[in-house]
Write a structure and sequence with these properties.
Length: 182
């Protein structure tokens, strides 16, 4: 399954999608928890909590699909955070072995910040008109050339260039307003 199909399946509460996640990501979580003071039973509990957190974040719009988003990485980060929290509650002072986990805490924090920025940008982008959204998605996400964009949108290449500039200015202005508004 692609990440997009997984995202849509979770949003639609599709049992096959949850089964796919279980079959393809359970082992990684068991490995991480087992190597960091936990049992397989702990890992399965953590994995289930992670799946619920992922579903909740998708349902509430805290996690929105992006072409470069890796749902497995996000699920792993959720499970890792849940496990660290549980270890703290147990008052286990042993640090989680970041080499085993494969994600440095600073990288995890950066990943969480990146997801938050992507979600904020997505919300701001939805405030733009349809043509601006289409143009920016074609240029930045699909990496289309201005010539290709002009053909798709039925405009000249020069108009595509001018519109891209204008749309980006509008996007920056909306984003800055959003980040300065409490």
């Amino acid at each position: 399954m692609t990440d997009k199909e997984i995202f849509q399946g979770i949003a639609q509460k599709d049992n096959q999608t949850f089964l796919y996640l279980y079959q393809n990501h359970k082992g990684r979580i068991i490995n991480m928890v087992s190597k960091n003071s936990g049992t397989e039973e702990d890992a399965l509990d953590i994995f289930q909590e992670g799946i619920i957190a992922l579903w909740t974040n998708i349902e509430k719009g805290k996690f929105q699909f992006q072409e470069n988003a890796k749902i497995g990485t996000y699920l792993f980060a959720l499970c890792r955070n849940i496990w660290i929290s549980r270890l703290r509650k147990r008052k286990i002072t042993k640090e989680v072995d970041n080499e085993t986990v494969g994600i440095d805490p600073s990288e995890l924090h950066a990943l969480e910040e990146e997801y938050e920025q992507i979600n904020q940008l997505t919300k701001v982008m939805q405030q733009l008109g349809d043509s601006c959204q289409q143009l920016l998605q074609l240029f930045y996400y699909k990496k289309s050339s201005l010539r290709e964009i002009a053909t798709v949108m039925g405009i000249t290449e020069k108009t595509a260039k001018n519109n891209k500039y204008r749309c980006m200015q509008n996007l920056k202005e909306l984003y800055n307003k959003r980040s300065t508004t409490p």
